[in-house]
Design brief:
InterPro entries: AdipoR/HlyIII-related. With 243 residues, the chain is an all-alpha fold. The protein has helices spanning 2-38, 45-67, 72-93, 95-101, 106-127, 138-150, 153-162, 167-192, 209-238. The protein is elongated and about 55 Å long.
């Protein structure tokens, strides 16, 4: 009798343990299914604003090169559109790093976003002035756009101070530094007219400064796109934890 009772208890215990394990596994599976549904991804508008600015810049530049040979008046209009596109690209490039770095600090988020937006609008307005198109202002134009790009140093340093322990902060900063290098070299080549100034007539068709400038702008935009993906993954997973 005692052996039979022991066997029943053991079997019952095994059955209960199996049921408990089954229930635990079901709860774990359900949690894995529900977790992605409960995850609320952060807003994408800063990332889309950057993509829109990049596409507008490249479209404006393509339109300028395609139609500027039509007439003097159309050249006048297209050049302004081209400069406006560059200013839009630079200013919207700040939106993802600033918003996603300081999304949990509204004061600094609004401060940096407001500053770069005003600076971008001011640069576009200055670009529309007729006197700004004169050849003697070529270096000033490049310096203005370069200065707008350098204004991003403050939020990047601020981000590193706040999130020094976060690997994503260093990862995105690496991309942003590389982007700045591409844009900076592009602006320098554009302003100094390298390499055609060294060998006039040798780069009239291919390899002149304006072409190199566009190649570097595309490289910088793509680098910034990769940084944006890191920002999105970081904030989607962690939100404001660790801030």
């Amino acid at each position: 009798m005692s052996w039979t009772f022991y066997t029943i208890v053991c079997l019952s215990g095994s059955h209960i343990a199996t049921r408990l394990m089954f229930v635990f596994c079901m709860k774990e599976d359900v949690a894995n299914l529900i977790a992605p549904l409960m995850l609320r991804p952060i807003t994408r508008w800063p990332f889309f604003a950057f993509l829109g600015g990049a596409m507008f810049c490249l479209l404006a530049s393509s339109t300028c090169h395609l139609l500027s040979c039509h007439s003097e008046r159309l050249t006048y209009i297209m050049l302004r559109l081209d400069y406006a596109g560059i200013a839009a690209l630079i200013s919207t490039s700040f939106y993802p790093p600033v918003y996603y770095s300081f999304m949990c600090n509204p004061f600094f988020c609004n401060l940096y976003l407001g500053f770069i937006t005003l600076l971008g609008v001011a640069t576009i307005l200055v670009s529309l002035l007729p006197v700004f198109q004169n050849p003697e202002f070529r270096t000033i134009r490049a310096s203005l756009f370069l200065g707008m790009g350098l204004s991003g140093v403050a939020p990047i340093l601020h981000k590193l101070i706040l999130f020094w322990h976060q690997p994503e902060a260093h990862h995105t900063t690496g991309y942003e530094v590389l982007m700045g290098v591409f844009y900076g070299i592009g602006a320098l080549i554009y302003a100094t007219r390298i390499p055609e100034r060294w060998m006039p007539g040798k780069f009239d068709i291919a390899g002149h400064s304006h072409q190199l400038f566009h190649v570097l702008v595309v490289a910088g935009a793509y680098t910034h796109y990769q940084a944006g993906l890191v920002y999105l993954k970081w904030r989607d997973l962690e939100g404001c934890r660790g801030n």
